[in-house]
């Protein structure tokens, strides 16, 4: 078989046993890989277990790789992780870069299913040499409680040869609702709390190593197109989206989003920071000088949006240059626009202790806003926190991850339980969809994205559909087969149809386990080139329409699992009806009636 190994590894932690399951070419022609394969495996191993808790040992935790994993193709290293989510009410799909996915394939597997629960902390070591695979279950009590960088260092020293690692931090061990899974030390399957699912299984880390080479029908063609992509990337103009990613990482998007009025500040009440000092701090020339260090890309990536901090910056020993979403939510959104020091420290605390920066930051912003508006008072919690208090925000993040003190414990259980304890009066200040904190794109400025946050199987996810700009870009719409258009700031029937088509597109990209920066519409490749790459890898003869159909079927399966297992759509959030008060996106809002019409129309399309 080309492009796939044809085997899935099933690990049962309860019995410390493992087995392989094989599938034929017809199966892979239908499910392809990545997110679709992950959902299919989850469904098969979840069986009839309705109404179980995400922390029930019967909840499968699934990892799945893509067609190009294991080869030096730019943007093709992503791994999909899927399970019942402790943060929201249904299933969740999360993704990360790094070498875990490619190494899982080199070990001889397209996917990995973790079942059961170890009776005490373990890590699992998967090693394939030649035709022989072994899985070892190793006592991890000495790693339990260690932050992830420290745990990884210890693991590296124990493992002798090089393994790729998926691991959790103390937040995952402590079943914090927004705990994430880290790959190596600087890639994160951040969303949906899947690190807590791993923690509930007493699984500190999965280490994988293999020496298999993936087989492709026409490797030369894939590499030829890959080379063309690298050439195109070189030719983009300075300041273009792709060049900002290459030169400043997603950290550089602070400046673009500030200029567009799309930067959440003070718990999403404002969309830009009214300060020339802030603008000076985040302009690209200054970022280059003060923050951006060496590239630390996913393997073979010619864009390399992942970076280290500059060698002489005070953050040089941090794991990686903060991502846009992280510093926006833990910086300006906490009122820390002029206290980057604490904002960046807050990102690093989350990374080391194993929490999603977006959800954790939103929880703190919510609490700050409640105190600012005197919805909460100090006596209720024997605690208070206000916007701009970076020191307290950092302390509270540690308390959440380590479940220390009353506010830390309260927020560790996530949005639903926190509202239950603090009362409905706090609900209007929550910036989350179905328990998952909102990413750093203002839904009032980008109503299509806002609609996507509140609707469908991956709550609060900005990477499951294209952003609103596409709705008025004739070239992109035509290439997606669309003859309709809409205004970027509108939420009408055309906008939801465009949103749905791009959801299907990104579902296809996730099925292929590709990076959306490289394979997003209009970024590096044409759709024809992408299709040619897939066919050169698999030997199948898909058309673009057939790949889109697979994307749609995958999305259907994700919808089916999410809604059947307890997921819901979010109610309209009343604050979206209020106009953004100032700045470049002044007056933007979402009318509740437009939203409900859009929702009805969207639901009629499925
Ligand atoms: S663009 Fe960034 S996230 Fe995407 S593959 Fe390259 S380094 Fe990884």
- If you average the pLDDT, what whole number results? 96
Q: Could you estimate the helical fraction of the residues in percent?
A: 40-55%
The profile of the biggest β sheet is: 6 strands, mixed
Q: What is the assigned CATH homologous superfamily of the largest domain?
A: Aldehyde ferredoxin oxidoreductase, N-terminal domain
Q: Which residues sit in consecutive blocks of at least 5 with pLDDT less than 50?
A: none
Task: Assign the CATH class of the largest domain.
Answer: Alpha Beta
The CATH architecture of the largest domain comes to: 4-Layer Sandwich
How far is it from the N-terminal to the C-terminal residue, by CA?
34 Å
Fraction in beta strands: 5-15%
Structural class: alpha+beta
Q: Count of helical segments?
A: 25
Write the layout of secondary structure elements.
Blueprint: E1 7-12, E2 17-22, H1 25-31, H2 34-46, E3 61-64, E4 79-84, E5 91-96, H3 100-106, E6 111-115, E7 122-129, E8 132-139, H4 148-159, E9 164-167, H5 170-173, E10 181-183, E11 187-189, H6 194-200, E12 203-210, H7 219-235, H8 241-248, H9 253-260, H10 276-282, H11 284-290, E13 292-295, E14 307-309, H12 324-330, H13 340-353, H14 357-372, H15 378-381, H16 390-402, H17 405-412, H18 415-422, E15 432-433, E16 436-437, H19 447-454, H20 474-479, H21 493-511, H22 516-519, H23 527-538, H24 544-564, H25 592-604
Parallel strand pairs: 1-6, 7-12
Antiparallel strand pairs: 1-2, 3-4, 3-6, 4-5, 7-8, 9-10, 9-12, 10-11, 13-14, 15-16
Residues 75, 97, 297-298, 301, 303-306, 515, 517-518 line the site of iron/sulfur cluster.
